[in-house]
Design brief:
single chain, alpha+beta, SH3 type barrels, five-stranded antiparallel β-sheet, three-stranded antiparallel β-sheet, elongated, WYL domain-containing protein
């Protein structure tokens, strides 16, 4: 048996969104492999939803005392038509001819049972191509962090298995030249903004000779190997994890610095409006006086408050005040020098 080529026609809007996800989740340039992964990884949820809709249609027909009785395949065909309509309507997809759509071909490999089972479930009144396209449209309706979970399903399953069994792991990451790293995984978290998923973990730093709390994009993990070692977490690392979850799981915290600022009225408004990567004020903040305290990382503190400029005065610690003042001096010198 030779490999078969399956051609899928996607609406240009959907095709563009797939390209964007390639960039968002750093999946590489192989669109066909990404499409295949989406279909296989998302199928179980798609199938559950369409069968749930089939049952609701079935119940609705019975409740209306309609005399005509459909069989299961007919109910499934109705559910398929409704689902197809809703997906296309959501993506603003017009009923263009195939030549107006973007063609993507995927290879059905020999003994490719996962894809075989999916294709076998295709409704009788749907073509193989439009059925697979509809699974992709269903995927695109999911929020960004859920789409990342679908693409990284195998990695997430391995991580969750290690976390549940309290096992240490070794990982290979895309951004670290495929270096193998031994870590203790703590928890998979979604950012407060609902954009990406992160793994919180503990790692031993040989140079500093101490354990550190770290975070990594799930999409940045290319491989996971479960070890037999049992997990142990340092008490101070557990405290850092709590701070990371409260302030933003995308920022690693390995210090106990408290940042204290005074905001103008405009600064208070900016704090309410700028929700992306916003650190969480501590309970001892004096908000009525415009004084706020944070225990976030230095990177998060500096990047978040950089746009506040004249609407924020840093009160503590002195080290960060001097550091930011020096950055302003350097910027002024650059302008004076015409750089």
């Amino acid at each position: 048996m030779t490999d078969d080529i399956i051609t899928i026609y996607l609406n240009p809007i959907a095709y563009k969104n797939i390209i964007q996800d390639q960039e968002l989740f750093k999946t590489g340039s192989n669109k066909s492999e990404l499409i295949r992964k989406i279909i296989i990884n998302h199928y179980s949820k798609y199938n559950f939803n369409i069968n749930e809709l089939k049952q609701k249609i079935k119940d609705a027909v019975k409740s209306e005392n309609i005399n005509h009785q459909f069989n299961d395949d007919e109910y499934l065909n109705i559910a398929w038509k409704v689902t197809k309509y809703l997906c296309e309507k959501t993506l603003v997809i017009e009923k263009d001819k195939n030549e107006h759509k973007k063609k993507i071909s995927i290879r059905k490999k020999k003994d490719d049972s996962e894809l075989d089972f999916i294709i076998d479930s295709c409704p009788k009144n749907a073509s193989e191509s439009e059925y697979l396209a509809n699974i992709i449209y269903s995927y695109l309706k999911e929020p960004q962090y859920e789409r990342e979970k679908i693409i990284c399903k195998d990695i997430i399953e391995s991580l969750n298995e290690a976390i549940q069994n309290k096992q240490s792991i070794r990982i290979i990451t895309k951004s670290d030249n495929n270096r193998i790293q031994s870590i203790n995984p703590k928890e998979i978290c979604t950012s407060q903004e609902g954009l990406y998923n992160y793994l919180l973990y503990q790692v031993y730093n040989n140079e500093k000779r101490e354990y550190l709390a770290r975070t990594i994009h799930i999409y940045n993990i290319s491989s996971v190997h479960l070890d037999t070692n049992l997990l142990t977490f340092q008490p101070h690392i557990e405290e850092q994890f709590k701070k990371m979850k409260r302030n933003g799981v995308q920022f690693s915290i390995n210090e106990d610095t408290i940042y204290k600022v005074k905001l103008t009225e405009q600064g208070k408004n900016l704090l309410k409006l700028r929700y992306l990567e916003r650190p969480s004020p501590l309970l001892n903040s004096e908000k009525d006086e415009g004084i706020y305290c944070f225990d976030c990382s230095k990177m998060q503190f500096k990047s978040y408050f950089a746009p506040f400029r004249k609407n924020v005065i840093i009160l503590e610690p002195r080290e960060i005040i001097e550091e930011i003042l020096q950055e302003y001096r350097d910027a002024i010198n650059n302008y004076k020098g015409g750089v």
